[in-house]
Amino acid sequence: SKKRKSPTPAPKVAKKKSATLELLTGDSSRKRIIFRHWPRAPKGDNITPNNSLPGKMTPNGIQLWGSTMFDFYRVMRMVDVPQLSTITTGSKLMRWMKEHGELTHAKDEIEFAEMEEDPKIIVPWSPRVAMEEMEVNIKLAKAGKSMPPVTATNQ
Description:
- This protein is of the alpha+beta class.
- About 25% of the residues lie in helices and about 10% in strands.
- It has four helices and three strands.
- It has helices spanning about 20-25, 90-100, 105-115, 125-140; strands at about 35-40, 70-75, 85-90.
- The chain has a three-stranded mixed sheet.
- A hairpin with an 8-residue loop joins strand 2 and strand 3 (about 85-90).
- Helix 2 packs across helix 3.
- The longest helix has 13 residues, at about 125-140.
- The N and C termini lie far apart (about 70 Å).
């Protein structure tokens, strides 16, 4: 009697994530999506490098700063060329809009930009200082147990 061959299992096909899903769930924390749009007046002035104004900046001079991802926008530099858009910040656009009198089409965005927090310096913590503070707390019996002192015999 002949042995029957077991059927060959179907090959496993890895499902590929969509580009959007990959962007949102990828391993890198450097991936961001700009999902807000700043409306413009139909006859508004062109935003150019020559008439651009700085918004809130970091202490080291980086001009594109936003407190949250909600503070970044796509905006049409030229209202009659919708294909030409730029990513910028609400504080920068708010200053430009006020300077150029373009206040009626982006009332909500201007109000939101006015409430944005100012940049702040966050000083990194020192592991050494944290360890020294913990050792003091251990010696004062406020936390954990202290290690026995290191001597030549138990090294």
